[in-house]
């Protein structure tokens, strides 16, 4: 197949969006054109062209990803991956991925990351699932949460007021958990605060709740309300979009509001952190249903920069033998020495303590996975002591969480 793989140009923007929409089974809306390209400049697109026809699409957002310890590292956010059904399984994605990860590597991005539509697609390119999410549901008719703290008040505000308070609050929270993403001004405007009717799935507009301690905002919740009645009894649902709090008092106050709105006893949050302490505050924890799914997948492109960029909770020295099926420049043997939580990493010629593939290093990187479990599955090899040390070194006490699909 004679294909050209390259970034698109201005005259191709309409066709490119149409190809993406078709790939995901929908139709591009004209009014979304400028918004779409406000967060995805043309030089960060990849189109696969069969003659003049766009048969494959890919894009990369420019993010900082919070890594353990709170630093933000540059991450190419892989997105809008589609291949026309007539051209599938002939290597189109592989060729687009080649250009994308080569560019990201040349630019010096230590990381690439994505959310996968299907879990079997991206391991071959060196991406490993680094964080999970909980799809959470509870019914406030059958369980109650504790009382909110006295020193935090919660107010409902409109979109304009929310747009002033929420971005700085998010920025404050962003360093507290690995897996969170930077949000540019354009991102807030065109993604987080954009709320057209066709995004609502039959629910209300976005509602915004701000928690404050005295005059200081300390947290927020974004949610929608879905009205429903069953046998003339209220059965409405609160759909949580996100809850961010600078401390536990703020978090508890927001949860209290969300679970005490008259007529809306059912609560659903499709992307809750897997360690949300709310479960311990529920009077009947069995009523809180939590289904675990994967969220962000991470690929290390610059292993030294990535391993030195994060913090560690356990000191030690580990020699890592890394196979990278798709980015040969990242393959090698690396010595990671951690002292006082700071990692120093260099490429070495030495026997490795543990051996693993890029996907497994990506999975371990944000601190939410167990090297012991991966070793039991045959995905990490090494002596029991070396695997135990790897487990301790990579794990973190706070679970990673990526609050937003991209
Ligand atoms: C996923 C998609 C982009 C794959 O494109 P493609 O051009 O067919 O992929 P390639 O031909 O480059 O496939 C490379 C390898 O991945 C495998 N693969 C691709 N898609 C796969 C899938 N959905 N499930 C399992 N394996 C898959 C191929 O079998 C091939 O394996 P091989 O090298 O062992 O033969 C395409 O199927 C698609 O557009 N799907 C719908 C939209 C979507 O889900 N996009 C992903 C968004 S995150």
Give a brief description:
With 406 residues, the chain is an alpha+beta fold. It is 26% helix and 33% strand. It has 11 helices and 21 strands.
The termini sit apart by 30 Å
- CATH domain fold name of the largest domain: Aminopeptidase
Structural class category: alpha+beta
DSSP helical segment count:
11
**Strands ordered across the widest β-sheet:** 1-2-3-4-5-16-6
Hey, roughly how much beta strand do the residues contain? 25-35%
Bound molecules: coenzyme A
Low-confidence stretches: none
CATH superfamily of the largest domain: Gcn5-related N-acetyltransferase (GNAT)
- Average per-residue pLDDT, rounded, comes to 97
Number of strands: 21
Work out the helicity level. 25-40%
* CATH class category label of the largest domain: Alpha Beta
CATH architecture of the largest domain: 3-Layer(aba) Sandwich
How can the largest sheet be summarized? Answer: 7 strands, mixed
Rg computed from alpha carbons, rounded to a whole number of angstroms: 23 Å
Domain module tally:
3
The general outline is: globular
């Amino acid at each position: 197949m004679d294909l050209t793989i390259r970034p698109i140009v201005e005259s191709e923007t309409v066709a490119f969006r149409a190809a993406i929409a078709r790939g995901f089974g929908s139709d591009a809306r004209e009014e979304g054109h400028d918004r779409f390209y406000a967060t995805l400049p043309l030089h960060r697109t990849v189109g696969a062209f069969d003659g003049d026809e766009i048969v494959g699409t890919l894009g990369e957002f420019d993010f900082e990803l919070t890594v353990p310890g709170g630093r933000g590292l540059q991450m190419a956010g892989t997105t809008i991956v589609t291949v026309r059904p007539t051209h599938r399984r002939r290597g189109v994605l592989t060729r687009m991925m080649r250009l994308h990860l080569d560019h990201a590597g040349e630019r010096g991005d230590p990381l690439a990351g994505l959310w996968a539509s299907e879990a079997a697609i991206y391991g071959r390119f060196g991406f490993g699932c680094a964080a999970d999410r909980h799809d959470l549901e509870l019914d406030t008719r059958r369980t109650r949460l504790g009382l909110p703290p006295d020193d935090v008040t919660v107010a409902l505000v409109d979109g304009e007021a929310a747009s002033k308070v929420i971005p700085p609050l998010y920025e404050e929270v962003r360093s507290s958990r690995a897996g969170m993403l930077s949000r540019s001004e354009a991102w807030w405007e065109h993604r987080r605060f954009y709320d057209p009717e066709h995004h609502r799935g039959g629910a209300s507009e976005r509602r915004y709740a701000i928690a404050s301690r005295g005059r200081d905002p300390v947290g927020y919740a974004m949610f929608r309300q879905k009205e429903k009645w069953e046998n003339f009894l209220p059965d409405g649902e609160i759909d949580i979009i996100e809850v961010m709090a600078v401390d536990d008092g703020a978090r508890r106050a927001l949860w209290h509001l969300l679970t005490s709105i008259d007529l809306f006893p059912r609560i659903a949050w499709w992307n809750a952190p897997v360690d949300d302490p709310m479960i311990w505050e529920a009077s009947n924890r069995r009523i809180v249903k939590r289904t675990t799914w994967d969220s962000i997948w991470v690929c290390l492109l610059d292993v030294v920069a990535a391993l030195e960029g994060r913090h560690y909770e356990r000191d030690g020295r580990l020699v890592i033998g890394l196979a990278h099926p798709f980015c040969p420049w990242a393959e090698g043997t690396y010595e990671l020495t951690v002292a006082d939580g700071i990692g120093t990493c260099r490429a070495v010629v030495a026997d490795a303590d543990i051996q693993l593939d890029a996907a497994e290093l990506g999975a371990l990187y944000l601190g939410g996975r167990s090297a012991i479990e991966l070793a039991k599955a045959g995905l990490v090899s090494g002596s029991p002591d070396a695997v135990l040390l790897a487990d301790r070194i990579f794990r973190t006490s706070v679970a990673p969480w990526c609050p937003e699909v991209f």
